[in-house]
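Support reply, case 0932

Customer input (verbatim):
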Amino acid sequence: MYWLEFWWLFPIALGICVLVCSVGVEGALLFVPFYAVVFPWLAGVELVPLQAIQIGIFTEIAKPRPRAWPRGTLAQGPAPAPPLKLLRFSVVRERTGLSRSTIWGLERWRAFPKHRRTSANAVVWLESEIVEWIQGKTLAG
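Our regenerated output:
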């Protein structure tokens, strides 16, 4: 069997798949049928139709779920955490377009991000929570 004779083709094919997946090309694992046909041809071994059908069935059964390997996982590493910014009341009001009483009312009903007290006379909101709230409102409406 050529699978045992040309075992060195598998690590090459696997390496190419890993490389292509790591740089973010989706569907790279679907190149396996290409390797199963082209590499035996390059090695001078004839692939019989039954083997081609078995390879096709195997790749259909074993294909990964969509987005199972996030784009650029190996090349970029973990995503950096967004910077933590605190927004004063005037900025929150400007970004949301809401009045003072509406913001306090929504916050009281837990329909708006909770403020944090930084001193006796100052409150702030986390920018990420405000942005998330705005995005939630734009997606819902």
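We compared this against your earlier run and they match. Two observations from our side: The chain has two domains: 2-76, 86-140. The first strand starts at residue 86 and ends at 88. Please reopen the case if you see a mismatch on your end.
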